[in-house]
Amino acid sequence: MKFVTMLVGGLAFTLAACAPSAAPQQADGAVMPPTLFVANKRGNTLSKVDLATGKEVLRLPSCTNPHELATSPDGRHVALACYGGTSIDIFLTDSLERVASIDLGENARPHGIVWHANGNLYATAEGRQSVFWIRDPLSEARQVFESGTGKQGSHMLAVSPDGRIAWTTDLGSRTVTRVDLVTRRAPMSVTVGEEPEGIALSPDGTTLWVSARGSNQAFALDPQTMELRETVATGRFPLRIAVRPQGDVAVTSDLQDGSLTVIDTATAKVIRTVAVSSPAEAEARFQVTILWSDDGSKIYVAETASDTVAEVDYASGKVLRRLIVGDGGDGMAILP
Q: Where is the secretion signal located (predicted)?
């Protein structure tokens, strides 16, 4: 167990509630069109896709082996976890100009990332077995706090609505860990399936959903006690899980099937399976990250091997189009 505080400063325990943001704007004040950002992990680049046209409008160098992404509450910035290095890099959403690079220390290997409505950044550091909390990330006076998980492969991340608690999936330890970022109490870990990786918190914060790629299962946990509530069989190799903004369903990205398993969150039952690609195509596509549109009408599916993102209509289950991105598109973030 380790707790490290970097850039020591006062720690405010109460986080102010944030008012809903206005439509994202560019630096010149123009309203940003619906936009998808994609981290291309083999190309070491960042792509920007105009969702109105489906065209990639910009692709620029990012960092080594970039993975997960998160957009700022005001839509002006996108943060990138540099898994091949030690930093969280921040870019302007209109130009993809890098405006900050926050180093997390030796062997950090940051992966999961959340840009919270409170304005703070949260990220896992797999190489350090920890979670970072970055207050005021765009300020020179930013404060960086590190809390250890004590587990191997702390990979993906969910954060509570009040920003006080984080949960990680720990691939190497076969666990899910609850980290109290404010009181610094010892983390709580439970064993969940084989190779738990995907994680998502329900919009109301009452259920933690986890997908375990090695056992082809999804799990519903109590986020406070970490008690297992439900176990659901999914498609093969459910690498990610994402809850619809409306909270009615959770969806897993089943890499080996090229499909999505749709789970009713009220009953914890599978209600349908969506074929994004055929089983024969699954290896050639290699679908990884999934992301809901802001209104819950579409699911974006990163197909890492084919350098595409499939746009899926949730109601019909049909693939509407495939968006061309960079080499090895994986992590995604969206502006409505």
A: 1-22
Give the alpha-carbon dihedral of 47, 52, 53, 59, to 10 degrees: -10
Distance of CA 116 to the CA centre of its chain: 12
pTM of the full structure = 0.91
Given a contact cutoff of 8 angstroms between Cβ atoms, the answer to whether 49 and 56 are in contact is yes
Separation CA 178–CA 188 (nearest Å): 5
C-alpha 237, offset from chain centre: 18
CATH number of 64-191: 2.130.10.10
Backbone dihedral region for residue 53 (phi beyond 0: left; psi -120 to 50: alpha; all else: beta): alpha
Question: Which pLDDT tens digit goes with each residue over 230-256?
Answer: 999 999 999 999 999 999 999 999 999
Token pair 């809850």: residue: 243
Q: Tell me: the pLDDT tens digits for 115-174?
A: 999 999 999 999 999 999 999 999 999 999 999 999 999 999 999 999 999 999 999 999
Instruction: Give Cα 256 distance to the centre of its chain.
Output: 20
- Is there a contact between 246 and 276 (Cβ–Cβ < 8 Å)? no
